[in-house]
Amino acid sequence: MQLRHLRYFVALARHRHFARAAAECGVSQPTLSAGLVALEQELGKRLVERDRRFVGLTEQGEAMLPWAEQILGAMGSMTQAVAATSAPLSGPFRLAAIPSALPLVGRFGAALLQRYPGLSLAVQQAPSRQIEQDLAALSCDAGLTYLDHDPPAHVVAVPLAEEGFLHVAPSGGDWGEEGAVVEWAAAAARPLVLLHGGMQYRRILDAQFAARGLSATPRAVADSLVALLSLVGSGQFATIVPDGYARLVEGLAGFDVRPMAADIHPAQRLGLLVLDRQPMGPLAKAALTVARTLGAV
């Protein structure tokens, strides 16, 4: 079985498009298609449903995908481990982060690249469950996510920050005295734009409201904190974002930014995760080394 054929298969499963998968693999579309046919012939199973375009993976293809991802990930880790015996770490470092953890990317990424200058950083935003799946499939090297709410399994975690909540609204509104906290009941009564319910931060936020006997029914939802702030900037909505975004939004013209009332739950911890596996790859080890120097909480 040729590794390049596995790469074609995994790329196609990720992109769900023949031309984009071929472009990622650096081959022509006919070459990719021929490689997939060769893989199917070797296994004696059809892996991909296709007409003139990609339709989906067959049941056999779905069963094979996580194993193919792990084989390719293990090969990459093996190559890095061998190379690291005679030269500094080099190549791409794949970091996945939930939206709430994106403010940590700068601090962690800068420390990683300073300690390991041969690495290049590739950051992808992903939901927490996708990060857990990507770590298990060895398709990312580390993740930044919550450590206590829906904690992932089979990982090594390093806490990096504790999270509070910020109320962000159009400036000029009746939000009380400057610097005063915003009560949760007052926030629930206003037109809100929030992350959609499938995102972990939204589930945490809903739990905060519910603990106070409240519920928030947003007028709009989005899957990006940038989209939330854009809608707030329209003057029609308020939102609640992680306080890690304070440096990014405080002082911006047109926004009133202040903390929410004291949290009645333990603070949510954000941190770095790597897959707990032996042997641990050199990139995962590097991530843990850097995270532990950043001052775990």
Automatic annotation (TrEMBL):
The species this protein was found in: Novosphingobium pituita
PROSITE patterns found in the cross-reference section: HTH_LYSR (PS50931)
Family note: Belongs to the LysR transcriptional regulatory family.
Pfam family of the protein (one): LysR_substrate
UniProt protein name: LysR family transcriptional regulator
UniProt keyword terms in alphabetical order: DNA-binding, Transcription, Transcription regulation
UniProt KW Membrane keyword: no
All copies of domain HTH lysR-type, residue ranges: 1-58
PANTHER family per the UniProt record, alphabetical: BLR3139 PROTEIN (PTHR30419:SF31), HTH-TYPE TRANSCRIPTIONAL REGULATOR YBHD (PTHR30419)
